[in-house]
Amino acid sequence: MTKTQSLWNHGVKIGAIGGVSVLTISLIGMVQMFGKRFIVADFLPMGVAIALILTILTAYLAAKKTSIPDKSIQLANSVISGLMTAGVLSMLVIIGRSIKLRTVFVEASPQLYNILTGGIQGAGGIIFLLGVGLLCGVFAGILILLNDLWRKLIVNALATVFVLGLLQELIMPILKAWDLGVTNYIAELFYAMNGLTPMGAILAMIIFSIIYLSWYANREKIKKGYGDLPKETQKKTKYLGLLILAIILIVLPQVLGLFLSEVLTIVGLYVLLGLGLNIVVGYAGLLDLGYVAFFAIGSYVVALLTSPQIFDFGLNFWQALPIAVICGVLAGVILGIPVLKMRGDYLAIATLGFGEIIRILVLSDFLKPWLGGAQGIGSIPNPNFFGFHMVKPQHIYYLLLAGCILVVFISLRLKNSRLGRAWMAMREDEDVAQAMGINLVATKLLAFATGAGFSALSGAIFASKIGSVYPHSFNVFISINVVAIVIIGGMGSLPGVVIGAAVLMGLPELLREFAEYRMFVYGVALVVMMLLRPEGLLPEQRHKMALHDEPETEAKTAA
Amino acid sequence: MFQKWKDRVTLTDIVMWMIGGTLLLMCLWGSVSTIRAGLYTKSHWIDFVIFGLAQGSIYSLIATGYTMVYGVLKMINFAHGEVFMSGPFTGYFLAMAMWRSEFLDKHPIMAIIAIFALAMFISTMVAYLVEKIAYRPLRGAPRLIPLITAIGASFFLQYLFRGLYGSGINAYPDVQILDGFWMILGVRVLKIQVIVIIAAILMMLLLYGFIMLTKVGKAIRAVSEDKEAAALMGINVDAMISTTFIIGGMAAGAAGVLYALMYKQVHFFMGFIPGLKAFTAAVLGGIGNIPGAMLGGVFLGLIESVAPALFLDGLGIIAPYQLKDAIAFWVND
Question: Is the confidence metric ipTM above 0.90 for this complex?
């Protein structure tokens, strides 16, 4: 008896976890909210797609965790897991249809039950739900049974369809905007008004499979061929790659429309913020949760100096910018001094408090004559570049791009400098670093000051972009967003910050329904990231080694 | 002697003293001018003090959770504010159901006990699950990692409850026996505030007794002294850590209901600010020290209610955030 129990243990347990996860996203309204956005037009809404992915994923895990390497038992486990997930959901439907759950759970509406049961009332709906669960389980089981190549092919092909469907609003307008015969044809072939056409989805999968298979067949040859090239040519290809990247970055806002350029500038602002915090958190290991304070200081300095509303100093953006950055640096030092001796948790809370202090001071009536109180400061002029007014988001984009390149350059140079190494030594162990002769006071203050300066730069650009600043723009969520960017991207890694900002800030702007669940998803992402991949998406080499305790020799050969 | 001093004092110390001295002077100057102006009468001050005590005793209950977790894990449970929120937020629906069926007015004591039981149960479950899912797999990881997980868990919980129960501010139903005033020694005090103070003191006594007198409490103390040694003595460290979270969760849930009864409202973000303040209280009392956290909470509550009137009258500055600086000085010692 106990033997058979342990055989199905994983299927039941992990299936239940999957059930609770899908139940959670249903009850907080994700399935419904994303029900209006289609991956495949009029067939597969995104909310359902997410629920299906979760079900399949847990079923796959259930099969994988099975200790007995018997394929039929693995398959059975994944099927059980799928059924369990569906079972939990059908409980919700049965209970929800008989009792009015809505008094407690605001999102438990009949609409949700209709989505879950495919619109079928009564017992038929439950059978439908269980059937879908069963299919998910079988699908996950088949994935387990296939060999590596086919599994990767199927998963990646489906992921391609998912991403293409998700980015429909991004890709279709671009294709249409070019207004060539070919692009219009492609756009209409792949996309309906609200998602991929079924035809497009199948085509995308086929095209992806062909590319993937041809790459897979030739990957050894390509890698070897590249390795055989002389060092000079390799270097040239690298530079060529950088050049192409630069051209793409410069042309990008011209290709994308107004809305997408706006999204790009938001991403750009967060890249700047992320790069600054990356120095504080990623390099020096000081978790700063009040980072928004410096952003606010940068914004307010520019606002006070350029706007005629309160003082009318009459400076232009370029004169105000260095002052804003210097004020940010000074604020960084001022915050740095009292928290010098704090570590980890204390530092996080003290900086969080600092961020709130700044916001509350700015908001207070006490400082209203100088800072404008809750009404903020308006009519900040746009930056003027040699007589050229930067009005549109496209123009601000170039400003941000220049800022990012500058900051990336400084970060890169700092990383391998004496100071950068001192920061990293401090990150790993303060006491040892001090014993090695590192001046902790100066090193910490420099980290705070540099990070704060970058943040103030971002804030200055933000102020001139928006044209007005309000205390409410500088709440604690900005700090949390930036922390999430740095950590999910990979602490200490510059490409990680860029990717993190693009994913965490760009996607929610594109999927506006997502804004509701932004903090929810960040919370999950932070926890899951720390549990599974604490080094982040694009980890910094040294940090990754530290976290995984790789042997020294391996690291040397890798270098 | 003087030479020794001169060697030990660094520039940062001097800057710290200057900041501290300035703040102290500002406080003194503020209090003197407020008292001289005579804006408030004696009864105002008594109101401030009672309100501060009630508020502070709620902070104390939350702060014990922070302190105990810090004791055993040496980390700050950032999600503790959300543990505090989850209980009364769930209890709200029970309270509303009982209010609609008029059970709340007919059997108020029973109803309040039921709300407490539900809220404490939910908070306890949340605390337990957070520990089990988010913290347990990370034992022995670098310090920054569980801290980030805790922040993630905090936001996850906030927005989970926002998604489940809605984002509005929900008004707790009135409990008639808790309305109105009592005359104590010739002073009119709000009933609810007195009840909150008494309930919080009772719970803290219970909690302290549990930690000091029972075998489990002894084991928890042993774990917070030294995990390895405790394990060698045959104590199940993981179970004790879970127990700590459970006790902290119960205290937070109870504090949450008291908070909800006093302020008569619940919403998904209600745990954030009291959580921060309770953390401050725990630090003021010396983190890891349970009676210290209790005193720290009461102290913070008092300061918070008296200080704005006393020091910063009419400035529109909210006091507790100024106390954030105070943490810095305290921790520096």
Answer: no
